[in-house]
Specification:
The chain is of the alpha/beta class. Helices cover 37% and strands 21% of the residues. The chain has a domain of 225 residues: UDP-N-acetylmuramoyl-L-alanine:D-glutamate ligase (3-Layer(aba) Sandwich).
């Protein structure tokens, strides 16, 4: 019987979710209000994960929609430049727009402004999902933002069913963004439903607490998911590291301290590092630490997808770093 790790070992991923354009003031440290020029890059949680996996030599196909305009074309070209398969990216016309994020490469008084009114990526339909040949992939990945609105929400759950029918493990990054949801109650119910249908769940302490309905109960929520429906649950705690629950074990890991340039992009890079490590045959603890190293690299550089490392850059970082903090 094919297992979750067997599927990941194929190193071929179908990724459902948002792609967008990022703008960030240049040089780093500049406030948006003081900027006279901006750099740009690929963004969007699912697109970042796909790009990160491709940087590590994996295959990733993105399932999403973009506006059929200059910003959408930018995203398509960027995806192609990173090696992401775009056969399942649909171009749509009308008033829908590809998401735009403007964020600062600074930690103190950091500002991120995200434009997602009439977001194109929410327009993925069940028919779009049915065009995907899931048998061509080893695992299915998505992030919580896809569940915030219809028709994307229903299409994502349909993709869960299609992936499972083809024997693919479902990998879920909780990625709760309050501004995308009609209410916190809807978000808690829908994200909990998605978590219960997933084989691997990755989230931070606040996200698990939100799903539990009480921030003090987030850890218990992660434990409950690991003991009932999920094979692997990663409970991230920022500078305190992470606790990974799998097979009745608790694996505690630290972080790779760096001087952070910004807070964005860490979670996407963590996921790419974790999954690429598992695909390469690393044990779970080493793969989680690999994800933590990737997150550290990204927060110390401008951009999200542009900041994500390849294998050589990750190796150089690890060789020059004193190692992770104690768990």
């Amino acid at each position: 019987m094919t297992t979750t790790l067997d599927g990941i070992a194929r190193n071929r991923f179908a990724v459902f979710g948002r792609v967008g354009m990022d703008l960030f003031p240049d040089p780093p440290g500049t406030r948006t209000r003081d900027a006279i020029r901006f750099d740009c890059g690929l963004g969007g949680s699912s697109a970042n994960i796909a790009a990160g996996l491709c940087k590590f030599g994996g295959h990733a196909a993105l399932i999403t929609s973009v506006s059929d305009d200059a910003v959408g074309w930018f995203c398509l070209k960027q995806l192609g430049d990173y090696g992401v398969d775009t056969r399942y990216v649909k171009r749509i016309r009308g008033e829908y727009r590809t998401s735009l994020a403007i964020y600062e490469s600074r930690v103190e008084d950091h500002q991120t402004v995200l434009y997602r009114n009439g977001a194109a990526d929410f327009q993925v339909t069940a028919e779009d999902v049915d065009r995907v040949d899931f048998t061509d992939y080893g695992a299915f990945i998505t992030a919580g933002t896809v569940f915030a609105a219809e028709p994307s929400r229903g299409s994502a759950f349909h993709a869960f069913e299609r992936a499972r029918a083809c024997g693919l493990p479902v990998i879920f990054d909780v990625d709760y963004r309050p501004y995308s949801w009609p209410s916190a109650d809807v978000a808690a119910e829908v994200l909990s439903r998605a978590g219960a249908a997933s084989d691997i769940i990755v989230g931070n302490d606040e996200e698990f607490g939100f799903m539990a309905g009480d921030m003090a109960k987030g850890l218990q929520k992660a434990q409950d998911l690991a003991s009932s429906t999920a094979e692997i649950v990663v409970y991230k705690m920022g500078e305190k590291g992470a606790i990974t629950f799998a097979g009745g074990r608790e694996i505690r890991t630290g972080i790779y301290p760096v001087t952070a340039l910004k807070p964005t992009g860490a979670g996407d890079s963590f996921m790419a590092g974790l999954l690429s490590g598992l695909a390469a045959g690393q044990d779970l603890r080493d793969a989680v630490l690999r994800g933590s190293a990737c997150a550290a690299i990204v927060v110390a550089r401008p951009g999200c997808a542009p900041a994500m490392p390849n294998e050589a850059q990750l190796s150089a970082f690890l060789a020059g770093h004193s190692g992770p903090t104690a768990a």
